[in-house]
Amino acid sequence: xxxxxxxxxxxxxARNPNRKTALDYIENIFEDFIELHGDRGFRDDKAxxxxxxxxxxQNFTIIAEQKGRTTKxxxxxxxxxxxxxxxxxxxxxxxxxxxxxxxxxxxxxTKGAYPGIGAEERGQGEAIAKSMFEMxxxxxxxxxxxxxxxxxxxxxxxxxxxxxxxxxxxxxSILSPEGYSSILWKDSSRYKEAAEKMKLTAKDLYDLNIxxxxxxxxxxxxxxxxxxxxxxxxxxxxxxxxxxSSLTKDEIVNDRYQKFxxxxxxxxxxxxxxxxxx
Amino acid sequence: xxxxxxxxxxxxNVNNKKSKIDIPIGKWxxxxxxxxxxxxxxxxxxxxxxxxxxxxxxxxxxxxxELVIDEGTYKKFDLQIETTNPLGLEDYPKKLKxxxxxxxxxxxxxxxxxKIKGEDVVICIMDSGFLMGSMGAVVGEKITYAIEQxxxxxxxxxxxxxxxxARMQEGIISLMQMAKTSAALTKLDEAGLLYISVxxxxxYGGVTASFASLGDIILAEPGAMIGFAGQRVIEQTIGEQxxxxxxxxxxxxxxxxxxxxxxxxxxxxxxxxxxxLNKGGKT
Lengths: 278, 283
Ligand SMILES: [Zn+2]
What we know:
The complex is a heterodimer.
Chain A: H1 7-15, H2 22-29, E1 31-36, E2 48-55, E3 58-65, H3 71-76, H4 84-100, E4 104-110, H5 117-121, H6 124-137, E5 142-151, H7 152-156, E6 163-167, E7 171-173, H8 177-184, H9 191-197, H10 202-207, E8 213-215, H11 223-244, H12 249-261, E9 266-268
Parallel strand pairs in A: 3-4, 4-5, 5-6, 5-7, 6-8
Antiparallel strand pairs in A: 1-2, 2-3
Helix pairs in contact in A: 4-6, 8-9
Chain B: H1 4-19, E1 28-30, E2 37-39, H2 40-45, H3 61-68, E3 75-76, E4 81-83, H4 92-103, E5 109-116, E6 119-126, H5 137-153, E7 157-163, H6 171-190, E8 195-203, H7 205-208, E9 217-220, H8 231-238, H9 249-254, E10 260-261, H10 267-277
Parallel strand pairs in B: 6-7, 7-8, 8-9, 9-10
Antiparallel strand pairs in B: 1-2, 3-5, 5-6
Helix pairs in contact in B: 5-6
The complex binds zinc ion.
């Protein structure tokens, strides 16, 4: 029997430390994955994993926010919270993808870009802005997949894609429900209510046209059913890339541009309030 | 993404008001930097700068237009839009309506065309008096429309930012305006047109992490607070106090993220000079 999972329960599922991380997806979906490092400016930030891989004879550039799978790894990877170098590394790989005509697949899984002194000194805002700017221009297809937490600008920075997929129990939002309730209601204890209000579930975001595809998943992902899930994602990637293969470079850019250009939720001043679907 | 620093300041102001109820409302203003009580008109006549200590007060759209745009040349874009309230928050549309009536502003940004010492430009000016200059769909759409108009009219664009970040009330729709405005700027870039971004106090969050940081030239007013994450969030995360001068315009200049700090009195001349110097190789 299938029962509805509440928005807050999805937040908990998305944050579960045992949830599959980007590398788990990458290793299952692709062949010959090779990680390549560094932003060529400051250092290699391990909160972001970049590299090359293929599915059959199609090569890809991979850009992924990576949480640790153990405490030790989490410390190395800064709990998946990128510093500016991560976004600059991502930009380096986006440009190479375009140079060599490879589609880009990104995996989104972060609580947000890291709020630290060094991050500000090295231009966290500029790095995120530039990442979206470069991504918007890419002349190759881009697919973003929200696999866990997609929180704030730190997530969107690598999600300016032609198609955005989202795991059924992942979340994607302007910030955490805790932050949202404390800023908007000055009451951090109302986080569960915030989660329901924020429209952060895959279903809500699909209805708002923010994401294009919901990837089905069982309430609990195990090693056994994960094979099936990643097999499905592989097929979806192949199918979308095949569809986009008939587009010219300009059409690919324009397709992505229009997707974001049309996110409005606007009406003429004074016009009747649209009824918001529950 | 909205900034705690700003919240802190607002609370501070409220406290001040409470403790100084003997000050006649409307005519006097307290400088938050030197704590001096100053006659409002003196501040207004002084480019909204404290005559006592030189602290920059936040500037409203009207004053800012007066400061940089030639008199009588500003024509606003006719874009009568408002949010559909995508999260269905009960009091949000009412709040917007009340703010429009109270401030006389349509939203947190005004956009149009005008002249700067005779040079045609597209100009966008944000206002902290409207939900702390936060970016929802209206701000995102107006900025994007202004960029598209700049391309259409082959004009340079100047954006004055002041913002707490993305607007919470519109949730993910607000977040997406970061991508929308940044993508629009790729088209401006391809058209070979100039974008001057001017950062004023405070510029934070989703605005810093989108169009405000993408200028060909980025200017800032002295002492302006500029950053991605709010100061309280950073302090809570790292568990230590922030260094003196952190996230000021001077700090950003030192770290290479802005081109120049420009005093208010020199803004118009500086922007004009940059407009001329960016007209290709020979003028
Ligand atoms: Zn003063």
